[in-house]
Amino acid sequence: MQEKNTKLAIVTGGGSGIGLAITEKFVAHNIRTIIIGRDRQKLDAAKDRLGALCIPVAADLSDLGAIPALVQDITTRYGRIDILVNNAGINLKKPFTEVTDQEFQQILLTNLTAVFALSREVVKQMAHSGSGAIINISSMAAQYGIPKVIAYTASKSAIEGMTKAMAVELSPQGIRVNCIAPGFIATDMSAKALDNDPERKQKVLSRTPMGMLGAPADIGDAALFLAGDAARYITGVVLPVDGGNSIGF
């Protein structure tokens, strides 16, 4: 069970990239953080790097039927869940007409339906204590149109709508719900995409007023703020952390 004054967080996709950066910030501020992901090796590497406050849990969140038991197990072992960060997500870059029904559904399952199912089960636990903070992760794809990512865009636009609906329904119960919309962040995944496509990289930088990619830690700082008492009167917002990209000309 958790020690007094130590909050408990869950970060999905916490083994790498933005999820790992969020976990790093949480752990540095004495928040015990359970990282959920499919890749046990990545999770264990994160644990080795971040120490005792980082707790790896291997699970496939697209297996919706297993989510209630997963959340029950976490609360039984570690106590009350104070913070949930829905960060796990997958992308598919493909021309619109070539995306199959199955591919579209798979992206929605992982990026949207699993977020709903996990949030629902965590909220049942948070409601007992009358407090909690949920942070969903969106994308620039929900702020403006980006070609060849139709399923991803649909999922992230839905996440932003769901954030607002959740916030209105859950805030009276003491559960705040907010969303971060990262701009173009320098991760292994984005580096692979942008370095192989110099034209796209140039476009990204030219429409970002600050003229540079963000760092994963920038998203970590935003998540730490939204999860904490400094944001106690903030709910239902979508916060772009993007160097001005979403308003860039």
Automatic annotation (TrEMBL):
Signal peptide: none annotated. Keywords: Oxidoreductase. Transmembrane segments: none annotated. SUPFAM superfamilies: NAD(P)-binding Rossmann-fold domains. CDD domains: SDR_c (cd05233). InterPro entries: NAD(P)-bd_dom_sf, Sc_DH/Rdtase_CS, SDR_fam. GO terms for molecular function: oxidoreductase activity. The keyword Oxidoreductase applies. Belongs to the short-chain dehydrogenases/reductases (SDR) family. PANTHER family: OXIDOREDUCTASE, SHORT-CHAIN DEHYDROGENASE/REDUCTASE FAMILY (AFU_ORTHOLOGUE AFUA_5G02870), SHORT-CHAIN DEHYDROGENASE_REDUCTASE FAMILY PROTEIN. This is NAD(P)-dependent dehydrogenase (Short-subunit alcohol dehydrogenase family). It comes from Chitinophaga japonensis (Flexibacter japonensis).
